Amino acid sequence: MASSGIVYASFDRFPAPKGAAVHIRAFAEALGAAFGPVDLVAIGDAPGIPTPALSNAVTYHPLGARGKDLVAQALTFRAHLGAWWHGRPRAKVVHVRSIFEGYPIAQRKASLTDALVYEVNGLPSIELKYHHPDVADDAELMRKLVTQEDVCLQAADLLVTPSAVTAEYLVSRGADPQRLRVIPNGVDLDVFRYAPPRAPEPGRPLRLLYSGTMTSWQGVHHALDACRLLLRDLPVVLTLVGPLRKHTRRALLDRCGDLLLQGAVELLEPLPQEELARLHHACDVVLVPLPANDRNCLQGCCPLKLLEAMATGTPVVASDLPVVRALAEDTEVLRVRPGSAKAIAEAVKALLAHPIQGAALSAAARARVERDFPWGRAQEALVNAYADDLGIARASTRSNTAASASA
């Protein structure tokens, strides 16, 4: 049976107001424009979020992922993916983002596809304990996760990751560096438009912004502790934007404590990108307080929230980690010692005392993103990897060849 099209499968909710969904759409659209039909398969039924308009080359297939825990949800999604695949022609390429959809495909790669692309943004053997602390001591589950990750790494014809730190870790796990491509995340520059930093106004509280997962591995507790320190000297409002799961809500509320009663902290659910960009412009400093842990330093990451903040022009205070240094020079963001609320507070005070420094950081950060991190550059790099490393012919090339043959 002849191979047909690209399947982009992801155990992520789509659409959703988070970086993964933005990334998925950007890559699926790029592949569709370059190579023809793409079937996008992801977790659907996101409440209250309309499916974005996709190009004619991308067909979205929402699948269910029900269950009381992550394992049950993954098994349900795998079952639905198998049912969706039944009777379909062999795919030219299957592109996966995790082991939850990737492992069963890697096991049956020979019968399902000509080529497998494994896009590694994170590995559950490292990240799962931060989302579900009760699994950290489950040695059997961790062994299965590592085994399934290794199967996907070995079966993939192309490995894509957004971070050089992640790439180095994958090589240490046995990945072939010749099949590995680093493609950093991008920013929609038309959504995250630039504006100079806000001018200070007498009596107005200093507004800080933290967006992302409300967990310790992202450093939200360091942002809260820095807010407490700053409140000793000036009025501050810290806005936290991101999802709050039931098991993390109580811990976060306890951590906020009296800050909520004082009006020094406000909690917002995830926002559409346009609203998030406007919120950046309404704040004085964005905090990216990533701690030094195995998720950020061993596995690596490419924090999209850092790039989006740099694009908007709001000055950024970020942890001085390799994953941050790969995206921003010290002339573009104010880098501070990881894990130190005091260092964050002192950096914020320095920006407040020296607005010229903030303006310089703002302009340089926007210029860096425009040069190195527009989504178009990431999309082009992915398309080139498909063409150069997998030998997939672009749709325009196939059309020209067909026209020449019929002439």
Automatic annotation (TrEMBL):
Q: Name one GO molecular function term.
A: glycosyltransferase activity
What would be one Pfam family of this protein? Glyco_transf_4
Question: Could you name the domain of life of the organism this protein comes from?
Answer: Bacteria
Q: Does the keyword Protease apply?
A: no
Asked whether the keyword Transferase is assigned, the reply is yes
Glycosyltransferase subfamily 4-like N-terminal domain mapped to chain residues: 18-190
Q: What InterPro entries does this protein map onto?
A: Glyco_trans_1 (IPR001296), Glyco_trans_4-like_N (IPR028098)
Please name the GO terms of the biological process aspect recorded for this protein, alphabetically: lipopolysaccharide biosynthetic process
Where in this chain does the record put each Glycosyl transferase family domain?
201-367
Arranged from A to Z, the UniProt key words for this protein are:
Transferase
Q: What is this protein called?
A: Glycosyltransferase family 1 protein
